[in-house]
Amino acid sequence: MVPYIYIPDGHIGPLPLHPFGVLVATGVLLGTAMTTRRARRLGWDVAKLNSFVTWMLVSAFVLSHVLDSLFYHWDEVLKNPFGHVTGVFPYIELPYVLQLWAGLSSFGGFIGAAVGIVLWKYLFIDNGRLRIRPTPAPLLPFADLVLSCLPLGWMFGRAGCASVHDHPGARAAADSLLAVAWPMHFSVDPTTGAYTGDGTAHHLWFIQFIEGHAPRFDLGFLEFLFTVILCAAFAATWHKKVPLGSYMIVTALSYAPVRFAMDYLRIPASEGGDTRYFGLTPAQHCCFLLFAFGIAMIFYVRRLKARGIDPTLAVRAPPPDAAPAAPTVTPA
To answer: What angle do CA 201, 203, 209 make, to 5 degrees?
Structure first.
């Protein structure tokens, strides 16, 4: 079995460093930096890319929690639908659906990212005011570029999930491949931050590897392994000429069946696990749409090629001394 990994919080002076937050932030920074680097190498407009990524990330973060709340934690939404004010000194508690730090959903993030980039296609911000673009901006070049580097950031994000074990799966036999040696009782010494539960702990620097006695699957860890494979495969193509749209297609057609299968390893609803709709989790329903999207993208990219349309022309960086060009219409 895979040992249960416990990483205590670190500190920089009085500031605590949570392993999940550190890993997720690292993933965002590395993924964004690599995307920018590839854009420069391709000769694409980095300013437009940064605008695209900002709209994408903000929308992904917000809808990741909102959709997680609505489809996975509806009971929490009903407990606190409107928020309230408490205490002698007014303390405002936001409605659960707006407590963006309370929980995130990967498919909620994907849907949020899609909403964000569609809004970017038609809207822009000028001097603090939201305006409609004279002509819609092309999505395919930047979307495919971001997808080419997404597994790098995704890998660190899922490593964060695996480090805090926030996606426990169903119980497993002790000899199950990739099952995690989960401890039956997990407790931490409040003074030292060290693990004091029922399992046997082995130390490697500040990381503790625990051999527990209640094996189960860790879905964050399983998805981390998938992202490692996908990241390695994509990184091997970064210096090669890859047809536009390939990264979007491969991501959709590979992740949909993998995630669909992994969700059968979630804790059953009868044991307090995620809500099922018609016997499937919300993510499994989304897998059908994601796979269909991948198939549709194959035909869409082929049609663009047959018509001789190159959407990357609209995202090329202007010469250093060139005046800003008027927006042009480029299907994408």
So the answer is: 50
User: pLDDT of 246-301, one tens digit each?
Assistant: 999 999 999 999 999 999 999 887 777 778 889 999 999 999 999 999 999 999 99
State pTM to two decimals: 0.85
**Closest C-alpha among 176, 203, 301 to residue 250:** 301
- Per-residue model confidence as pLDDT tens digits over 104-138: 788 888 999 999 999 999 999 988 899 999 999 99
CB count within 10 Å of CB 329 equals 9
Q: How far apart are CA 171 and CA 87, in angstroms?
A: 42
> What distance in Å separates the CA atoms of residue 174 and residue 197, rounded to the nearest whole number?
19
Contacts of 195 (CB under 8 A, 6+ apart): 6, 183, 186, 187, 188, 189, 201, 208, 210
Q: How far apart are CA 249 and CA 269, in angstroms?
A: 32
| pLDDT tens figures, 229-253 | 999 999 999 999 999 999 999 999 9
Helix axes of 106-122 and 46-72: crossing angle, nearest 10 degrees: 140
Which amino acid type is present at position 47? A
Amino acid identity, residue 253?
Answer: L
Q: Which residues pair with 171 in a beta bridge?
A: 216
